[in-house]
Amino acid sequence: MSLPFDMFNSYWPLKTVLSFIIASVSVAALSQRLVSGPMLGYVTHTECAIWIQVSAPCKLELVYWPSGEPGEKKISRVQVGEESANTGHFIIGNLKPGVEYQYLVRSGNRRLADFPGQRFRTQILWQYREDPPPFRIALGSCAYINEPEMDRPGKSYGGDYGIFHSIASTNPDIMLWLGDHVYFREPDWSSWTGMLHRYSHDRACPELQELLRSCSHYAIWDDHDFGPDDANGSFIHKDRSKKVFEMFWANPSYGIPGIGGTTTAFSFNDVDFFLLDNRTFRTESTLIGTSKQILGQAQIEWLIQGLKYSQAPFKFVAIGGQFLSDAKVFENHANYEEERALILGRIEEEDIDGVIFLSGDRHSASISESSFQDGRKIIDFTCSPLTASAYDHSKEANSFMVQGSGFYERNFGVIEVEGSKGNRTATIQILDKSGKEVFEYIIHEKDLQKKL
Fold first, then answer.
1. What is the pTM of this model?
2. Euclidean distance between CA atoms 408 and 394, whole angstroms
3. How buried is 146 (Cβ within 10 angstroms: 0-12 exposed, 13-18 middle, 19+ buried)?
4. Distance of CA 92 to CAs 61, 64, 115, 178, Å?
5. Which residues pair with 77 in a beta bridge?
6. Phi first, then psi: what are they for 370, rounded to 5°?
């Protein structure tokens, strides 16, 4: 294509064109806005991930420096685009262990995210030097954010979004999302743009932003953030589900090499976390003539090997559905009794200590406790719902439920890990939507070890 002759030979038309281009770029920069975040993802001793979503494609810069040392500023850059709903992940490396950093995010020279207390801290290198530090885990599942034009008619299913402020006020080091962190509606799960819309809409909830910025976030999924209600591995768009999950979370990894899914693991101080995928490999529970599974043999073997290798006093295993309960209702693991028995049997025969399951899904909270023949306890802390509607499951025949632990309103959990090495305790709390404690359960690391 040829350009008009006078563009090259006339000063004023060329000046006008350049002015127009500069003005357009300036307007685009000025119109850019923060949609949600920043959210701190995984954090190690020397690296972390920070997620963000903005309103339009652009280049973003994250400027960071050790607190109190603004002269040592460094910059991480990322390009965001429409294909990823304008989300981006800053991967910040070469950090120092146990150091607090401050940061801001900008587009061009304009700050998009610069809040008081905008900071993160790397993990402390305590090994061989001192006792492991105390830390606090917040957790929950089933976060439904209303959107009337897409919701079912009638009473709103979601509410009490102030629970996110209550969680942030507990000052957790980690927020662990136990599935159903969004609820795909019928128009969402059938298309890529629908999935992006649901995540973008829910993540932008104003009450959520403080929590996103306040601590490190890790997530698993369950049926509603995977596909339709009670979806299994036959869901045709599960690859899309995984891709959007990766876009909106900042886990350390996604899937077991050679196996797939969203499974991952990480360590925080002296505790190991195993985040399982209970959807990708799940088969339909009513099938005849087909082996029924939720996790699948390959994922189970990976889990057992990881638990066996771990030296952690507490080994938290996060899974979307309730594991330990023996009530064969809804999507409890008891409906897949062979697989459930296999997992428990392998934990027992391998003499694995310290296992605590963390589950969601049930729209109520409870603690289940069982023991092996050698006296070792095994725990399942079910924590649900955050903002979805709650249900009363007090009549269920769960013979393992700790008396008084059932809570049937919107809630979240906090686990406080503390104590000297070899003498660690985990204090499990169920808190209501306002942050008031409604049940406490204290477990010592020796309670989860062999007695005989």
1. 0.93
2. 8
3. middle
4. 12, 9, 19, 26
5. 61
6. -140, 170
Collapse the DSSP code of 382 into the 3-class scheme (helix H, G, I; strand E, B; otherwise coil) and give the result.
strand
8 A C-beta contact, residue 172 and residue 415: no
Output the CA–CA distances (angstroms, integers) from residue 235 to 193, 238, 263, in the order listed. 17, 6, 18
Which residues are paired to 120 by β-bridges? 101
Residue of 168, 251, 250 lying closest to 215 (CA atoms): 168
Closest CA to 415 of 197, 173, 84: 173
Say what percent of the chain tops pLDDT 70.
92
Q: Which two tokens stand for residue 64?
A: 């960071």
438 Cβ contact list (under 8 Å, min separation 6): 407, 411, 430, 431, 432
Question: Could you give the CA distance from residue 368 to residue 350 in angstroms, rounded to a whole number?
Answer: 22
Beta bridge partners of 135: 417
Domain 34-121 of CATH type 2.50.20.10 = no
Q: How far apart are CA 45 and CA 36, in angstroms?
A: 26
**Burial per residue of 258-295, b for 16 or more beta-carbon CB atoms within 10 angstroms, e otherwise:** eebbbbbbbebbbbbbbbbbbbbbbbeeeeeeeebbbb
DSSP state of 32: -
As a whole number of angstroms, the distance between CA 55 and CA 274 comes to: 34
| pLDDT per residue as tens digits for the range 57-116 | 999 999 999 998 888 899 999 999 999 999 999 999 999 999 999 999 999 888 887 776
Residues of the chain under the 70 pLDDT cut? 1-31, 116, 452
How high is the pLDDT of residue 285?
Answer: 86
Residue 113 confidence (pLDDT): 75
User: So what's the architecture of 135-448 in CATH?
Assistant: 4-Layer Sandwich (3.60)
The contacts of residue 63 (CB under 8 Å, 6+ apart) are 73, 74, 75, 103, 104, 105, 106
- Tokens representing 414 are 């906090």
Structural domain boundaries in the chain: 34-121, 135-448
Q: pLDDT at position 31, please?
A: 67
Q: Cis ω on the peptide bond leading into residue 385 (within 30° of 0)?
A: yes
CATH topology match: 34-121 vs 135-448: no
Cα distances (Å, whole numbers) of residue 314 to 49, 52, 90, 418: 25, 32, 30, 11
Residues 108-158 have pLDDT tens digits of 888 887 776 789 999 999 999 999 999 999 999 999 999 999 999 999 999
DSSP string, 226-244: TSSTT--TT-TTHHHHHHH
Q: Is the CA virtual torsion 11, 12, 17, 20 positive or negative?
A: positive
Long-range contacts of the stretch 251-258 (C-beta < 8 A, 24+): 251/41, 251/42, 251/218, 251/219, 251/275, 252/42, 252/44, 256/298, 256/299, 256/302
